[in-house]
DNA sequence: CCCTGATTCGC
DNA sequence: GCGAATCAGG
């Protein structure tokens, strides 16, 4: 694979969206995260919300990149789908009656828990990423939770609770278990 | 151990 | 220019 203008464009977009290099590599396909990082540096759009703590070895820290080139400072839409918290109760009642194996999308609380940078697509899911669907699969903004989960476990700690625990427990654990 | 980005250097 | 290897950190 080569860096066509389209792929570079997508790279810039995803990078400014806050996706990690590995996620971008998965989206692009045919490249590793190293390739993505290397390209990002060559494009001069590195240094994304990073506090200069210490460079590797004792080399020069010449990372003062004049980032004025990066005009694509997109504002991140905070909450894609704000909805009433009451909807949780509705889904909760169903789940309580019958423990769900295939959970239904639960829009509101998750949207807050999963920042845009943490979104996962079908390509970025691994053995240990949460596969909880978020949003409408037929819509553009559908994505997966993507938070870390134990190997072989489909969901992160939070979504395991959402999927398998009674509503009463969920309400209690919600604030404690992010993720 | 998992992950992240940063840097170097042979190609 | 490219990206694997490596480093440093969370």
What does this protein look like?
Residues 95-104 have a biased composition (Low complexity). InterPro entries: GcrA. Pfam families: GcrA. This is GcrA cell cycle regulator. Residues 46-104 are annotated as: Disordered. The chain has 179 residues and is mostly helical. Among the domains are: 5-43; 107-165, no CATH class. It has a two-stranded antiparallel ribbon with strand order 1-2. The chain has helices spanning 5-16, 21-28, 33-43, 86-97, 107-113, 157-164, 167-173, and strands at 133-134, 143-144. Helix 2 crosses helix 3. The two termini are 35 Å apart. The chain has 7 helices and 2 strands; from the N terminus they run H-H-H-H-H-E-E-H-H. The protein is elongated and about 50 Å long.
Q: What layout of secondary structure does this protein have?
A:
Elements (H helix, E strand, L loop, with lengths): L4 H12 L4 H8 L4 H11 L42 H12 L9 H7 L19 E2 L8 E2 L12 H8 L2 H7 L6
The chain binds a DNA duplex (11 and 10 nucleotides) through helix 3.
Pfam family, one: GcrA
Organism: Stappia taiwanensis
Protein name: GcrA cell cycle regulator
């Amino acid at each position: 694979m080569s860096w066509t203008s389209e792929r570079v464009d997508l790279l810039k977009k995803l990078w400014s969206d806050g996706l990690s290099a590995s996620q971008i590599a998965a989206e692009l396909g045919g490249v590793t995260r190293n390739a993505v990082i290397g390209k990002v540096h060559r494009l001069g759009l590195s240094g994304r919300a990073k506090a200069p703590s210490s460079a590797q070895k004792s080399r020069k820290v010449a990372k003062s990149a004049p980032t004025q080139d990066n005009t694509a400072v997109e504002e991140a839409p905070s909450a894609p789908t704000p909805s009433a918290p009451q909807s949780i109760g509705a889904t909760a009642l169903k789940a309580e009656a019958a423990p769900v194996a295939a959970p239904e999308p639960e829009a509101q609380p998750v949207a807050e828990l999963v920042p845009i940078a943490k979104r996962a697509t079908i390509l970025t899911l691994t053995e240990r990423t949460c596969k909880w669907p978020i949003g409408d699969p037929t819509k553009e903004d559908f994505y997966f939770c993507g938070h870390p989960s134990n190997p072989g476990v489909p969901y992160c700690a939070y979504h395991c609770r959402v999927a398998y625990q009674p509503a009463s427990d969920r309400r209690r654990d919600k604030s404690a278990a992010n993720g």
